[in-house]
Amino acid sequence: MANAGHGFTEGAQRVEREQEVDLLGLLAVLWNGKWLALGVIALGALVAFVLLSIIPSLYRIETTLNSTSLYHLQGLQPSILPKGEIYQVAPLEGETMYRTALAHAGSQYVQRLFWEADRNITPVPGASLAESDPGFRKFVQGLEVDQPGLGENVSKLSQIALYMDDPRVGVDLLDRYIQFVDDYTVRQFINQLRAAYETSLGKLDQDKDALYRRETLNVQDELTRLNEAFALAETLNIRDIPYEQVQNIELSLMDERIYLLGTSALGAEIGALQERLKKPLAAFVPRLREMEHWQGQMQADLRMLENKDPHARSFVIVSPPESSIFPVKPNKPLLFALAVLISALLGCTLVFARQAVKSYRLRPQAPASEAGPTQG
């Protein structure tokens, strides 16, 4: 057992010495090829330095937005119609406008509209602006829109960022862009309100005309009934109500025999109804008066939309566009260090490859007798 343990120890020591020899051999190979490795590292560092000098450094320009307030929407909100909920135009919701504005900010369609308006570019049907205008392509690639989370207790703040090599130009460009998105969103909601008002007014006009015709027919029917009763009372020579004859008659029977009212009462009532037909019927029908009031309110709201409220906003700018002090990308020091590291690995690989080729060429050749029998 002692001899076995001693043999195992000697074997382990021999393996350790071989590993040390191999490691020293590798270090010797690296030392002999140090100039090749250093040359590759220097070349890689030079190429990385030149390329990183050509690549522009980008600054981050960002602005922080929040949901719009009721104050900014007050001038656009529809009037409340008492008892007229069926014709009521739905009020604007600040969060809906806010999220719509953020969706517009991230839409390439709105970005193209902004670029054409900002650069006074006439759109060409069928042409791609991203292919024909490098500035627009750079603007789209450098724009980032951060969407806020959902929920009651989640912050509604969001950021719109733009990466550009010129921070001053980037600040002005982002400021113009968020103003364009704001105006575009407000105009879109104004158009939706206008369509809702026109629909409600059309429904209101239709219902008002139907009610007017129905009330007019009711008056005409009542006139016909009174004229018939007047003619019958005149035939019976009943001028005034014969109280001594009708004092024991039930009222329901009096309603069926209105000629008993006499020509005096019937004539006065007929005259009143005829005068009613000469005047606006809304003066005698409360529902028509309400409808005319609602109609006037909605028409006033619709006229108000023609002049856009200068305070109307789809979002609130918490912080205006500002640029970072230093470039944020690309990370040139990190990229340069990676290039040097890769060059060092490549240089070491070339040194070992060269040594392998030398070893292959210097290996001893087998004698001709061992090469095998010759053909003869």
Notable features of this structure?
2 domains, Bacterial polysaccharide co-polymerase-like, 4 strands, alpha+beta, single chain, 376 residues
Describe this protein's structure.
This protein has 376 residues and is α+β, with helices and mostly antiparallel strands. It contains 13 helices and 4 strands. It has 2 domains: 2-55 and 340-366, no CATH class; 59-323, FepE-like (Bacterial polysaccharide co-polymerase-like), CATH 3.30.1890.10. The radius of gyration is 47 Å and the shape is rod-shaped. The two termini are 60 Å apart. Mean pLDDT is 81; it is low at 250-254.
Summarize this entry quickly:
This protein is α+β, with helices and mostly antiparallel strands. The protein has 13 helices and four strands. The protein has two domains: 2-55 and 340-366, no CATH class; 59-323, FepE-like (Bacterial polysaccharide co-polymerase-like, 2-Layer Sandwich), CATH 3.30.1890.10.
How many structural domains in the coordinates? 2
The count of strands amounts to: 4
Q: What about the largest sheet?
A: 4 strands, antiparallel
> What string, H for helix and E for strand, traces the elements in order?
HHEHHHHHEEHHHHHEH
Oligomer designation: single chain
What would the principal axes of the Cα set say about the shape? rod-shaped
User: Helical element count?
Assistant: 13
What is the CATH domain class of the largest domain?
A: Alpha Beta
Weakly predicted, low-confidence segments: 250-254
Tell me the fraction of residues in β-strands, as a range: 5-15%
CATH architecture of the largest domain: 2-Layer Sandwich
In spatial order, strands of the major sheet run: 2-3-1-4
From the helix content, strand content and strand pairing, which structural class follows?
Answer: alpha+beta
Helix % is 55-70%
Q: What is the CATH T-level topology of the largest domain?
A: Bacterial polysaccharide co-polymerase-like
Distance between the termini: 60 Å
The CATH superfamily of the largest domain turns out to be FepE-like
Overall pLDDT score: 81
Radius of gyration, CA atoms, in whole angstroms: 47 Å
